[in-house]
Amino acid sequence: MKLVVRSLAAVLILVLIGSVSPFCLGRAQADTQYFPIPAISTSRNDGSDFGLIVPALTTGPDGDLKYLVAPMVVYNTIVGTRGTVNLFHYQPGGKELRGIASWTEKIERKFMLSYVDPGLSNGRYSIGLSATHFKNATVRFFGLGPTTNKDDETNYTASETRANWKFGIYLNEVTQIAISQRFRHMQAIQQGATDLDFTGDMFPNVSGVDGATILGERISFHYDTRNSLVTPTDGMAVTAYAEINHNFRRGAEPMYSRYGLEVKKMFASESKRAILVIRGDLQATLGTDVPFYEQSSLGGQNNLRGFGVDRYIDKQLIAFSVEERIHLLRARLAGVMADFELAPFLDTGQVFNSFKNVSFKDYRITPGVGFRGIIRPNVVGRIDYGFSKEGGVIFAGLDFPY
Q1: Cα–Cα distance for residue pair 84/254, rounded to 1 Å
Q2: CA–CA distance, 180 with 345 (Å, rounded to integer)
Q3: Are 214 and 183 in contact (CB under 8 A)?
Q4: Among the four given CATH numbers 2.60.40.420, 1.10.10.10, 2.40.160.50, 3.40.605.10, the one describing domain 2-397
Q5: pTM for this one?
Q6: Residue 7 has what pLDDT?
Q7: What angle do CA 254, 256, 260 make, to 5 degrees?
Q8: In this structure, are residues 253 and 288 in contact, taking their beta carbons and an 8 Å threshold?
Q9: pLDDT value at residue 93
Q10: Which residues make beta-bridge pairs with 183?
């Protein structure tokens, strides 16, 4: 799953860059352009990709991006040849439909469909629906806690089915109360695709190794003054939630709860060519038999970007990030305007089992720099490089990290 998103994000940025130059091909229709692009990317966890992607950007009469379609064929050094079809359909008011179908020569599969409408019924409500099934053969696990050793790195295949829905009611223009429900079925973890030790052999007693079937209900509060949900340049967002989860796996503790608070604040210069973004995140999990993949984690494309995905896992989490988004260039392509940004950042945080165990010596700090290509108001392609004492890590995504 991560490989599909990483490759497509990297390709989107290449498309944007290439479109500013004469590299782009002619139009197939008045409002559609095709961009055959080599797909070359690498990741410490997920190996290297080599292949071809042919994205098509379709704009409407108003010049807004309507469709991004990206079929791709790549060879990955760990799991072999992969064929993927990606479809993104953008509608006025922030409505978005996403679909991904991917099949890989060795183990990995992904099928995903999601729809979101943040302004249903003239902006009084919001809805979101999604369903996903995937197998990811390069997942890492180092054990639980803030001081796990890099030498204890293991690998497993995650085979999951997920579904969720969310319904929100706007109390006013910037405040929303939402209820949501999620289903997550995780099979017993299986042998991974790398030469690392198998997680099930090295950590046989960790909760969740034998699988889990989770049904969770959440109530959340959202306060958001940002000027865009996807590509904001100013404002503040606060999200708080409480969630009750039921684990139907036989022999498991049947119930646990999770709580979270996230605050994001943007400080824009008068010209908005420089935007300082600050994010704080606090998470807590209460329960005695919580699957390890249901607990809080640090590392990955959205926090502590100098470490691989899920590098540190435990019940509680404190994280803080600061990022300066610097405007570099604006250019017209395929009938739409594209912005490019440079974004130096600093991520910090730690996980822990209990709040009484919080210690400054366990905080991890990862500096880095990112590059973004943006088609407002719907599309962000980004590549971030973070550095830690364990080396450098590159991540790509189809949104801002926060």
Answers
A1: 38
A2: 32
A3: yes
A4: 2.40.160.50
A5: 0.87
A6: 53
A7: 160
A8: yes
A9: 84
A10: 163, 215
User: Alpha carbon 257 to chain centroid distance?
Assistant: 23
pLDDT at 54 over 90: no
Mean pLDDT of 288-304: 94
Alpha-carbon span 12 to 37, nearest angstrom: 9
- Comparing CA positions, the residue from 321, 349, 339, 347 lying closest to residue 378 is 339
Terminal Cα-to-Cα distance of the chain (whole angstroms): 20
Per DSSP (E only), the strands in 120-174 are 125-141, 154-170
Q: How many CA atoms lie within 13 A of 255 on its CB side?
A: 3
Consecutive H or E run containing 16: helix 2-20
Peptide bond into 377 cis (omega under 30): yes
Dihedral-angle region of residue 61 (phi above 0 means left; psi in -120 to 50 means alpha; beta otherwise)? alpha
Report how far residue 210's alpha carbon sits from residue 190's, in angstroms, rounded to the nearest whole number. 9
Confidence band for 189, pLDDT divided at 50, 70 and 90: very high
AA letter at 391: G
Q: How many CB atoms lie within 10 A of CB 309?
A: 21
- 183: tokens are 């289903």
Give me the residue label for tokens 């292949």. Answer: 51
pLDDT of 23: 39
- Provide the residue type at 203 as one letter: F
The pLDDT tens digits for 319-367 are 999 999 999 999 876 567 889 999 999 999 999 998 777 778 889 999 9
Please count the CA atoms within 13 angstroms of the CA of 52 that sit on its side-chain side.
Answer: 4
Burial class (CB in 10 A: 0-12, 13-18, 19+), 251: exposed
Helices (H), 129-211: 199-202
User: Is 111:84 a contact under the CB 8 Å cutoff?
Assistant: no
Per the listing, tokens 């991560």 go with: 2
